Amino acid sequence: MKKTFALALALTAGLAACSNNAQNETAQAADAIAADANATTQNAISDVDAASDRALGSAEATMDNADVHAERAGDRIENGADRAGAAISNSADRAADATGNALERAGKSLKD
Prior knowledge:
Number of helices: 2
Helix content: over 70%
Radius of gyration: 43 Å
Largest sheet: none
Distance between the termini: 113 Å
Number of domains: 1
Structural class: mainly alpha
Protein backbone atom coordinates (compact mmCIF):
# COMPACT_ATOMS: atom_id res chain seq x y z
CA MET A 1 0.00 0.00 0.00
CA LYS A 2 2.92 2.34 0.77
CA LYS A 3 4.30 1.72 -2.71
CA THR A 4 0.94 2.65 -4.22
CA PHE A 5 0.86 5.94 -2.34
CA ALA A 6 4.46 6.67 -3.20
CA LEU A 7 3.73 6.01 -6.87
CA ALA A 8 0.69 8.27 -6.75
CA LEU A 9 2.73 11.03 -5.12
CA ALA A 10 5.52 10.64 -7.65
CA LEU A 11 3.05 10.87 -10.51
CA THR A 12 1.46 13.94 -8.97
CA ALA A 13 4.83 15.62 -8.46
CA GLY A 14 6.01 14.66 -11.94
CA LEU A 15 2.92 16.12 -13.51
CA ALA A 16 3.14 19.42 -11.67
CA ALA A 17 4.26 21.02 -14.88
CA CYS A 18 1.22 19.60 -16.75
CA SER A 19 -2.12 21.27 -17.20
CA ASN A 20 -4.60 21.63 -14.36
CA ASN A 21 -6.87 19.09 -16.07
CA ALA A 22 -4.09 16.49 -16.18
CA GLN A 23 -3.20 17.23 -12.57
CA ASN A 24 -6.83 16.82 -11.46
CA GLU A 25 -7.19 13.54 -13.32
CA THR A 26 -3.95 12.27 -11.81
CA ALA A 27 -5.11 13.26 -8.33
CA GLN A 28 -8.45 11.55 -8.90
CA ALA A 29 -6.68 8.40 -10.09
CA ALA A 30 -4.47 8.46 -6.99
CA ASP A 31 -7.55 8.88 -4.79
CA ALA A 32 -9.25 5.96 -6.57
CA ILE A 33 -6.16 3.77 -6.07
CA ALA A 34 -6.02 4.67 -2.37
CA ALA A 35 -9.76 4.02 -1.96
CA ASP A 36 -9.45 0.62 -3.67
CA ALA A 37 -6.49 -0.33 -1.50
CA ASN A 38 -8.36 0.73 1.63
CA ALA A 39 -11.51 -1.18 0.61
CA THR A 40 -9.46 -4.31 -0.14
CA THR A 41 -7.76 -4.07 3.24
CA GLN A 42 -11.08 -3.63 5.05
CA ASN A 43 -12.58 -6.61 3.18
CA ALA A 44 -9.59 -8.75 4.13
CA ILE A 45 -9.92 -7.73 7.79
CA SER A 46 -13.64 -8.53 7.75
CA ASP A 47 -12.98 -11.92 6.16
CA VAL A 48 -10.33 -12.79 8.74
CA ASP A 49 -12.60 -11.65 11.58
CA ALA A 50 -15.49 -13.74 10.27
CA ALA A 51 -13.30 -16.81 9.80
CA SER A 52 -11.88 -16.39 13.30
CA ASP A 53 -15.36 -16.09 14.79
CA ARG A 54 -16.49 -19.24 12.98
CA ALA A 55 -13.42 -21.17 14.11
CA LEU A 56 -13.83 -20.08 17.73
CA GLY A 57 -17.54 -20.87 17.65
CA SER A 58 -16.82 -24.33 16.29
CA ALA A 59 -14.17 -24.95 18.94
CA GLU A 60 -16.53 -23.80 21.67
CA ALA A 61 -19.30 -26.09 20.40
CA THR A 62 -16.88 -29.01 20.28
CA MET A 63 -15.79 -28.37 23.86
CA ASP A 64 -19.43 -28.12 24.98
CA ASN A 65 -20.20 -31.44 23.28
CA ALA A 66 -17.18 -33.05 24.92
CA ASP A 67 -18.36 -31.81 28.32
CA VAL A 68 -21.83 -33.25 27.74
CA HIS A 69 -20.44 -36.62 26.64
CA ALA A 70 -18.03 -36.75 29.58
CA GLU A 71 -20.88 -35.99 31.99
CA ARG A 72 -23.05 -38.70 30.43
CA ALA A 73 -20.18 -41.20 30.64
CA GLY A 74 -19.68 -40.30 34.30
CA ASP A 75 -23.38 -40.80 34.99
CA ARG A 76 -23.34 -44.19 33.26
CA ILE A 77 -20.27 -45.31 35.20
CA GLU A 78 -21.89 -44.21 38.47
CA ASN A 79 -25.13 -46.04 37.64
CA GLY A 80 -23.20 -49.18 36.69
CA ALA A 81 -21.22 -49.03 39.92
CA ASP A 82 -24.44 -48.62 41.91
CA ARG A 83 -26.00 -51.64 40.20
CA ALA A 84 -22.86 -53.71 40.74
CA GLY A 85 -22.78 -52.71 44.41
CA ALA A 86 -26.43 -53.67 44.84
CA ALA A 87 -25.87 -57.02 43.12
CA ILE A 88 -22.87 -57.76 45.34
CA SER A 89 -24.83 -56.78 48.45
CA ASN A 90 -27.80 -58.95 47.43
CA SER A 91 -25.50 -61.88 46.70
CA ALA A 92 -23.76 -61.47 50.05
CA ASP A 93 -27.16 -61.37 51.81
CA ARG A 94 -28.29 -64.55 50.04
CA ALA A 95 -25.00 -66.27 50.88
CA ALA A 96 -25.31 -65.24 54.52
CA ASP A 97 -28.92 -66.48 54.62
CA ALA A 98 -27.92 -69.79 52.99
CA THR A 99 -25.03 -70.20 55.43
CA GLY A 100 -27.32 -69.43 58.37
CA ASN A 101 -29.90 -71.91 57.18
CA ALA A 102 -27.23 -74.59 56.67
CA LEU A 103 -25.90 -73.98 60.16
CA GLU A 104 -29.40 -74.23 61.65
CA ARG A 105 -30.05 -77.51 59.85
CA ALA A 106 -26.64 -78.82 60.98
CA GLY A 107 -27.44 -77.79 64.56
CA LYS A 108 -30.83 -79.54 64.44
CA SER A 109 -29.20 -82.66 62.98
CA LEU A 110 -26.70 -82.74 65.80
CA LYS A 111 -29.40 -82.14 68.38
CA ASP A 112 -31.60 -84.98 67.19
